[in-house]
Structure formats: structure tokens, C-alpha cells
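re: ur msg from earlier - yeah i can do the S-adenosylmethionine complex, just paste it... oh wait u already did. ok heres what im feeding in:
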Amino acid sequence: MRLPDSLQEAIERECAPFSHEALRDASQQLSARYQESAPSRFQSPAARAAYLTVRMPATYAAIHAVLNECQALSPTSLLDLGAGPGTGSWAAAALFPTLESINLIEQSHPMVEVGRRLASASASALLRDASWHCQSLQDPLPSADLALLSYVIAELSSAQTIELLERLWSQTNAIIVIEPGTPAGHQRILQIRDWALAKNGHLIAPCPHCFACPMQTPDWCHFPARVERTRMHKYLKSGTLGYEDEKFSYLAFGKTSVKIPFGRIVGPVKKRSGFVQFPLCTQGKLIPQSITRSQETYRLARDADWGDAWM
Ligand SMILES: C[S@@+](CC[C@H](N)C(=O)[O-])C[C@H]1O[C@@H](n2cnc3c(N)ncnc32)[C@H](O)[C@@H]1O
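and the outut:
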């Protein structure tokens, strides 16, 4: 996965005024805050440029992977909450041809300005014409078919999260929440799952059932999205590999039911000579699968990846 070319070029223009050293310092501070799950602070222009280079490609890849599992939603309007530079809206514009309007909510005024500049470089009129609102999530929000909260719930208290979900539930048809793929991120997703089921919400992904989550500590439900690294990304993260795997946890749910798969692949897919193995979450259980060459599903299994729906 890589960013759309027009977005990558716009990011490079945003970063051009900064020395490599300034971006590396800002990137290290950003990574430290992310590891500590501290709220985003985009106070300096270099911090915002560093976010675009080292975090936006990763969150874009995670959001893209999630929205890909939610194609059945076909939303006509999107509310991108805690939008940052508009990462979620770029992914949604790439994946949902049904979208007609986007509203982005972001509290940081300088980040809204960055997001507007990036969007103005897009070939998509949907992104260029999107409405940016520099305001808090606690303020009144526009209605939409689909509300997207990507990498933002960690920055809210539990009470703020529930209050926000209550309002969104009365103003939207479906909600998607994406969090870092950590045990803490998964716990937040589980709390939202309980809340959604109590509201008689229909789960869309990743859960293929409404039973209690079978994932037990020390495991937690998370998925990887592989991100191609640019030369600058490698330099800023002192990385040698040409890619990194962004781990994320998520939940998509809505007011109307969509067809959900029999199971979800919730761990690495081991492809060996003559057989394929993976853990499958289905009907409230985690069931290890071992599919051999003689089985009808073998070809499907050879093409399967961690995170895919299974049949
Ligand atoms: C980690 S960034 C994620 C940005 C973007 N959604 C992404 O996935 O790349 C979290 C964003 O949420 C914004 N945010 C946090 N709390 C907020 C609030 N109460 N109201 C509006 N924006 C908020 C922050 O300013 C920050 O830009």
C-alpha cells in the first residue's frame, strides 16, 4: 500500500521547507508520544510535516484496509472525525464511489490548513470540495451516512467517547472506529462493541458474530497493513526495510444489517507445502484451521491473508 501520487507529492511540498534534521527530531517526538499513547500535539509546523511523512501513510493504509472490508456500506456522505490532515477522507474517496459529500472535523486550526492544502492537490472534486470544520468533537456535528473515527478515541475519555457515540448514533447510519493495534486499543474497541450491541447495532466488520469476543489475554484482536516506505520515511524512522507493518484494531457497525462472513482470519496465515494454517474467529470461538491440498478451499486459503473474511 502506498499513498495516492497526488497526496505523496503534496506531502513532499509540505515538508520541503524543513531540514532533514528538523523533521527527524519532530518525528522522534511524535513516535515517543505515539508509543506512550499520548494525545497528538501538532504545535510546530515541523511536527505537522513529520506526521504527514511518518504517520499519515500508516494510518492511510490501516483505514484503507478497514474501509475495504466495509464496501457493503456504500455511503453517500462521510463525517471524518478528528480528521487530522484528512487521512480517512482520502482513503474513503479512493474506495467509496458512492460518496457525494465529506465533512471533516478537526480541532487544530493549523492541521486544518494543512489538510485543506493537501486536499486542494487532489484530482477528486469530492476531496477538493470537502467541508472542513475547525471545532471540537464535543460541539454540534453535521449528520452523515457514515462516521469515521480513526486514531482519535484514544484522545478522548470514556465518558466523552460514549457521549459522542450517543450523538453519532442519532445522526448517522454506520460508525467505523479504528485504533492502534495494541492491547489498550483493542480494549477500547471492545467497550465500543458492547455499547453498539446494547444499542441493537449490527456488526459489519471485523466480527463475524455477536457472541462475546473469544480473544483472550495475552492475545488481542488486531490486523496488519503493510505500508511502502519512502526514502524520507526510512531516514526519519532510521529504518532499513522498504516497508513497515501498521497494526490496527477496529470495529464497523450500523443500524441496518449487511451480509457478514462465516469467519474472519485473526492471525498470520502460514502457507506451507501442501497445507495452509490460520486462526479463524467464527460463531464466538477461535478455531485453528489447517487446510490441505485435497480440500476444496485450498486455493482460497493460499490467497488468504490475516484480516480477510473467510467465506
Ligand atoms: C492521531 S490524529 C489522527 C488523525 C487522522 N484521523 C488519521 O487517522 O490520520 C488525532 C486527531 O484527532 C484530533 N482530535 C483529538 N481530540 C479532538 C477533539 N476533541 N475534537 C476535535 N479533534 C480532536 C487531533 O487534533 C488530531 O488531529
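cool cool. The chain has a mean pLDDT of 94. ping me if u need the other ligands too
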